[in-house]
Each structure stands twice: as structure tokens, then as C-alpha cells.
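Thread: D-glutamic acid complex, take 2
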Amino acid sequence: MATPAAGAKLDPSLPIAMFDSGVGGLTVLHECLVSLPEEDYVYLGDTAWFPYGVKDPDDLRARIREIAELLLGGRAKLLVIACNTATSIGEETARQVAGEHGVAVVPVVEPQAEIAAAITGNGKVGVLATPNTVASAAYRHALEGQGRALEVTEVEAPDLAPFIQDGSPFDEAVVEMARTYCAPLKAAEVDTLILGCTHYPLVAPLLQRILGRDIRLVSGGHAVAAAVQRTLERRGLARPADSEGTYRFLCTGDVDSFCDLGTRFLQMPLGEVERVEISSGS
Ligand code: DGL
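Output below.
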């Protein structure tokens, strides 16, 4: 299909495309489905290449390029990076591809940093994220750019997203794992914690119990849905709010396990999931 010339008006009836390494981005999709039910969505879970959190950054950027090309080549009016690691490592890459298609990008890191900086009372903000996200310092930079002196404590949680993506039952071992990750955040007395991975809202009740009710958890979904709405309105691409849109799923790995886990986490039927191939990085 031909790529629209830069500056050409996109068709508002096109879907919003989003991707993640697995089911974590469904936490973002869910917020969008609730806030903007009239839109159509296409979601790609790159499960064959999960986890992004420990992949070589250059390989990850190549993978992101190919995913963005696949999603936008299939025509979409907006690209949402529903993955903190992909945003931290490959936002620029995704923007380059999207720019060639005349499409805007909504990432996850910046909107969360804005909220965290606005709501922290004591100025102590924690970030729980994958090793790649912490190493990129994307949150640190985004928080520094909020125009407020903040004390930022970043903690890598290499095993948490894989545990969630596995669909393993919650047991004492995961509680212990979460306690270990939360210990430096408690020691730093953060009053606001950025869930810096789209998988983590799926264990928010566990984290909240360990950290206590007074710690505010900031997930990406809500902020991203608001950014999606603003972007569509600014570009004249919002659909009329008088109908209910559709959603469909693509994944690069096993379709049945994506469908089972996705249905469990989204708590909505996924319908038929289509398997797609991404060659780079494999
Ligand atoms: N959902 C991805 C993120 O937001 C993380 C998991 C991974 O692939 O390591 O960072």
C-alpha cells in the first residue's frame, strides 16, 4: 500500500496501532478502550522476542523499526509505544518510521514523568523498571525536565515482567521478589512510584500492599490514553463518539498462549489472534 506523502491528511477511520513485547501493553490498551471506545485498535505483542528488558539496545531498535513498519504499512493513524523499554531505547527509531508515514507517536515515559512530578509531596520519586529502561536513564531525564527538584530512586526489576508474562500463579516466591525490589524504594522514602514497565500494573495490588497505601503508584495507561486523545484532536483524527470501535491482535509467538494470557489480563475476549513474523533480531 502506498505511504501517504508527508503532510497528507490521514483517514480518521484508520485504527490506532500499539505494541509491546508481550501482554503488558494491554494495560495501556485497556485505558484507551475505556477512554476512547469509539476508536479501532490493532495491538501487536512481540512475544517471540520477549523480554525486551535485557536485549541488546541496537538489536532492539532494529526490531522496533520493523514492528513500526509492519504496523504502519498496514495503515494506522497513530502509533502508541505501549512498552516502557521500547520507549526508553527506541522512541527515536519509532518516530523516524512514523514520520515517514506522516503518523504521530505517543510514548509511555514522558506522560508518567509529568504526573509523578505533579503529585509527589516530598519530591522523592521511585522508578521500578527493566534493566534496559533504568540503564537508558529515560525516566531520570524526563523527571529532570519537569522543572522541579526531585530525588529519583531507580530500581531494576529483571525478573518481574518475565514472571507476569509467564502467567505463573502468584506464590510466596513472587512476594519475596517484589519485597526485594521494593526495599530500596522504602529506604529512600519515596511517596510516588512510577511503574516503569507496562506489565507492572498487573501486580499493582501486591506492590501497593508491600509499599503501603500512602505511596502513589503511577502507571502509564491513563496518561497515555489522555495523550492519545489530545494528539487525535489536535490532528483532526478523532472519530465521532457515537459508535463503538473494534480491536484486534497480532503476535509474533504462540497464538494460543497469547490469547489465554491476554484474555485473563484484559478481561475481555481477544477474538482471533493473527501470528506475524518479524525477522530482525531473531
Ligand atoms: N512491557 C515492557 C515494558 O514496558 C517490559 C517487559 C520486557 O519486555 O522486558 O518495559
